[in-house]
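Reply to dn_fold:

You asked what the input looked like. This is it:
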Amino acid sequence: MKQEFTITVYTENQIGLLNRIAIMFSRRKINIESLNTSPSEIDGIHRFTIVIQEFEEVVKKLVRQIEKQVDVLKAYYNTNDEIVWQELALYKVPTEVITEKVKVERLLREHGARAVVIRKDYTIFETSGHREETEKLISVLEPFGLIEFVRSARVAIIKNSAGFHEKLREFEQAEPSEEVIENEFLDKQDEVFSM
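and this is what came back:
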């Protein structure tokens, strides 16, 4: 059964990488529900947060393919139970409705919204939460003349993770093995490279 997955990708360099990753999704006919790029906890390392609806087996293969990209350091996939996530939403409503109808102000307080811009002609409110929560406020404000609405992409943190910083430190501390391993194909050039 298809379910919602959040894919987290740590990258060294974003130039051209977003396009290469997007192509991987479109080739598989997977729709990206939400895409966010941001700096990570490590200076110079960027973090992609991608939300899709798909079968787990497909997501597993996709994440392995993403990790093969040159600029990708690590990619993870998680269900909604394994992450803490939020989306930011902005709502523009006529100011006269807000000032005349105290009920609207109470509704906004109930939904954790706060005013970020108050002008004579309109007021902009901001709230954050899960998609269901931000969408509920749309239906509450529509009867009062909702002018405009926009929601950000998802930001997410993996619950059971020490962070990518820890993974990078482990990688940097890993020392080369003392054991010398011979290349088993070294003396079989004719067999390996023959057509």
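The beta strands are 3-11, 32-39, 46-54, 72-79, 83-94, 114-118, 122-129, 148-151, 155-158.
Hope that clears it up.
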